[in-house]
Amino acid sequence: MVLCKSRSVFYRSAGSEFVREDGNHLALAPYLDLLNHSVGAQVEAGYNQESGCYEIHTGDTYRKHSQVFISYGNHDNYHLLVEYGFTLPDNPNDVFQVEYNDVLNAALSLGVDNMEKKKEIIQQQSFHRQLVCSMEGMSWNLLLVTRILAMNWTELEQWKLVLTGFAMSDRNNTLSRQIARTFLTKYIKQNQDLITKFDTPLSPNTVESMVFSIVQTERNILQLTWTSVT
Length: 230
Hints:
Layout: H1 2-5, E1 8-11, E2 25-28, E3 36-37, E4 43-48, E5 53-58, E6 69-70, H2 77-84, E7 96-97, H3 100-109, H4 115-124, E8 132-134, E9 137-138, H5 140-149, H6 153-156, H7 170-195, H8 207-228
Parallel strand pairs: 3-6
Antiparallel strand pairs: 1-2, 4-5, 7-8, 8-9
Helix pairs in contact: 3-7, 5-7, 7-8
Protein name: SET domain-containing protein 4
Organism: Magallana gigas (Pacific oyster)
InterPro entries: SET_dom_sf, SETD3_SETD6_MTase
């Protein structure tokens, strides 16, 4: 898959009895891997019906004989490794995925009540999607979920105030942080256990070393997020 993805592009076929009409078509472009990925590369790419070619136009300026970069998309290192076989140092798109059920279980362990009503609100508004931590802390959706779960019934009746960044109460703020610390504690322990399974030092530029760097980045993200809720 890595070999295929690094030398292929997605495009919509004009239609064929041999091609599925789901719009998810791969076209082999053998020289594509000569153009490396950069997070900041500004490009427009697509199949030109008039020229009959797949064209890539850069919005950046390059000197003669210098390397030209393209962007594979805003992907974290886990995605880049699985799909393309490489990782980037200090990738700004790196995140730690948080499971919605882990957040719910953290709230339940702290004796939070009115859970069914809270889950109804969270899921109707799709706040349970894109729950991540990054180097900047918890995502907006994750922050909303912890604050809604921390609400008492009176606060829950006016839950939309939280969308404005309004502080519901000191009690709510304290409990929402406790919920976050509870699921973060679990993730930090899992991350520590995973790190101990690697035999260091590792040879550079191997799959194992790239996986280890991802695990280390996740550790840094979790530690920074922990600091933000203590």
